Amino acid sequence: MAGLLDGVKVLDLTRVLAGPYCGMMLADMGAEVTKIELPGRGDDARRNFPLVNGESAYFMNLNRNKRGITLNLKSEKGKEIFRELVKQSDIVLENYRPGVMEKLGLGYEDLKKINPAIIYGAVSGFGHFGPYSKRAGYDIIGQAMSGLMSTTGWPDTPPTRTGTAISDVMGGISCCVGVLAAYVNRLKTGEGEKVDVSLVDSMVSALEIINIIYLCTGRVPSRIGNRYESIYPYDSFKAKDGYVIIACGNNKLFDLLVDVMKKPELLENPHFSDNNERVLHHDELKPIIEEWLQDKTIDETVDMLLAVGIPAGPINTIDRVVSDPHIADARQMFVELEHPVAGKMKVTGNQLKFTNKKVDISRPAPLLGQHNAEVLGEKLGYTPEQVAQLKEEGVL
Fold it and tell me: Is 168 part of the annotated catalytic residue set?
């Protein structure tokens, strides 16, 4: 079945995480994504743990559904081949430090001369303009400089990064949204576009209410653990065998919780009678809820609360996530692939679900240069002998 982006041609020059995540999303939705890597070395992520039969599972997860070629963009022949591919493409993705592609003569201003309709998606630490634009950017720097780390953790712990590379992921998603918006505009106007995405910008946007608290009140938000700044109880609570989330997003839900707990006197306490009061006096309410939970397991608590309509859930460890009947089975968030070296393995599924089209994850990540002959033959008419010669010359 053809995907939603069937026919969209993408050249993916990106490496490691943020850019490849964008290319992965486009590929999962049906775009023809050709990953271009440095001959002999490839994407740095090819060496990242964990390894399966010597192949990086980190790399394989982010580069499924793509074809892979190698190309030396420092050589004149390599640049010539790339420009010929750009003429036939819709989108170019890169996540080099700003200025690198321009020095190669392959920046947006250069490429739009040969393909005025090209969509150029660039992901970097700080974006392509501004006083920090030439700085190197990594996920942890995005988390730090956006303010995320200053608000992650507990009051008595140091600033903490999230468990995953969330600014890289947000940067990848932001780039995907940007290039698709630019592509829709191109369908209407014929105009190409450069999409400039910064990891720091992406995380600043994602902080939503954290920024607004300071902008509107002057209070600098700090680390508050798992509770939410605007609603309570909306937090993690200790049960008999672990932790459970209880999310009472309004007064009605708190009234239901009080009924389940059989503690009607809580509603008579002015500190708990309204959501804003509960936010101010969360430190009084949390121990009361945890005392009620001390002889209850996570699963029985969740079942009990869901039965009366209170949003609740376990804090799952990953082994629970990958065996969850809703997440893993019904929503297909873990998909099995057959890799030519790693063998059978599972990768993370795609979060986008469509009614009339299917997100298809069926092609394993390419080996380094695996599709050189296929892509150059199909797109540029190169013979196997010409491809072999280019490899000998160090172009491929």
Answer: yes
Peptide bond into 116 cis (omega under 30): no
Amino acid at 84: E
Q: Which amino acid is at 72?
A: N
Helix (H, G, I), strand (E, B) or coil at 183: helix
Of these residues, 28, 90, 139, 168, which one is catalytic?
A: 168
What is the full per-residue pLDDT of the chain (396 aa) written as tens digits? 579 999 999 999 999 999 999 999 999 999 999 999 999 999 999 999 999 999 999 999 999 999 999 999 999 999 999 999 999 999 999 999 999 999 999 999 999 999 999 999 999 999 999 999 999 999 999 999 999 999 999 999 999 999 999 999 999 999 999 999 999 999 999 999 999 999 999 999 999 999 999 999 999 999 999 999 999 999 999 999 999 999 999 999 999 999 999 999 999 999 999 999 999 999 999 999 999 999 999 999 999 999 999 999 999 999 999 999 999 999 999 999 999 999 999 999 999 999 999 899 999 999 999 999 999 999 999 999 999 999 999 999
Percent of the chain as helix, strand, coil, to the nearest 5 = 40, 15, 40
Place of tokens 């039969």: 53
Q: What is the pTM of this model?
A: 0.95
Task: Centre a 10 Å sphere on the Cβ of residue 357 and count the other Cβ atoms it contains.
Answer: 16
Residue 289 backbone phi and psi in degrees, to 5: -65, -40
CA 211 to CA 386: how far, in whole Å?
Answer: 56
